[in-house]
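Field guide to reading this record: the first block holds the primary sequence, the second block holds the structure written as discrete tokens, and the final block holds curator observations. Each block starts with its own label. This record concerns D-alanyl-D-alanine carboxypeptidase, catalogued under organism Polaribacter atrinae.

BLOCK 1 — SEQUENCE
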Amino acid sequence: MLKRVLVTLFVTVYFTSCKTVKLAKSIDQKITTSFFDNQFTGIYIYDVTADKILYNYNADKYFTPASNTKIFTLFTGLEMLPDSIPAFKYAVNKDTLTIQATGDPTFLHPFFKDSTALKLAKKYKKVHLLANNISDKKYGPGWAWEDFDSYFSPEVSAFPMYGNVVAIQNEYSIKLTPTYFADKLKITDRSYGRKELSNSFYFGKNRKRDTEIPMIINDSLLLSLWNDILPNKVGLIDKSPLKPATIAYSIPKDSLFKRMMEVSDNFLAEQILVLASSTLSDTLSSAKARNFILEHQLQDLKQKPRWVDGSGLSRYNLFTPISFVEVLTKMYQNMPEKRLFQFFPVGGKSGTLKNWFSGNPKPYIHAKSGTLGNNYNLSGYLITNSGKILIFSYMNNHYMHSNGEVKKRMQMIFEELRDNY
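BLOCK 2 — STRUCTURE
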């Protein structure tokens, strides 16, 4: 009986090993063609159940990750934030409410429309707002200056409102949120945008697509936006004799993370790190959150990243494929698969992967893409036809091909893994 078991085990190990070697050779053949000559490619594939590395190509080299950075941001939020988002801290003295900012991005946001702060503020005669407790600059290091009015580049702030953007719709007539900017919007023949140094916006009269244009955030605007919804009630203060210590909570954190990952929302990613820092001290600092997670939960990473923002907009970020797989593995081992996979775009079905990597007949890719000019990366989870879970990171930097051509070659490798492992 024992002999039979040992023989069976030997045969299983032998054929599994042969299959792995065959797959590795096939991937080698695909990525050593002339197509890859003038780009930088890194691939790391890990069988999490078998605790086995299936493939490693330049996986310990550093790459520009683009929005793959949001995987680290997701991990930070999961580790540092409570089940519901800390909307703000507050204290009450008779008829006065003092609110201290935590960086919560959901307040009156076009998608979440959270009104936790507004509901509480309505109950008091006076509202004092402390929002000078952030050390982050409005843009991350290395962000492109010309993106100041692009939808994907809202400013970072201590107390965001409306997602820090002006949202414009033109289905039957022009609708603007917040309406405070109605007299600052000019209808033109051009597409859309904003003056570089002022909150003066323009929008094409024939444009039908829903549009978001970042605001310039400052104390004056924050005060005006608050008093637009609560007239003559809200004031900004630099310090308070009261210490706001009670925490008010807004939406479930998973809802925030899912939105951030599915549509690759840069603003939400940046604010999640600011939020995470609010659990460490009253001073809001995304750097403090990044350093904390690297020094504690991620101190065992084989290659420490250069991690400068939450979204991946900065080209200063440098990460290795191995690091992404390590973090993805930690998340896979620490939470139910169903909850984890909900955060990631699904190949051929949702988010940034809706038009790529579709399954036949069912989805098999749950992953986060990362795109900048001449860079495309994808890291996440691949489910094989045999039911195995592979954790992977496939990074492409500095190519001159189209993104579509790069994705086609990635898809060939993913489908081979799906069908033959």
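BLOCK 3 — OBSERVATIONS
The chain has ten helices and 16 strands.
The chain has two domains: 22-74+286-420, 75-277.
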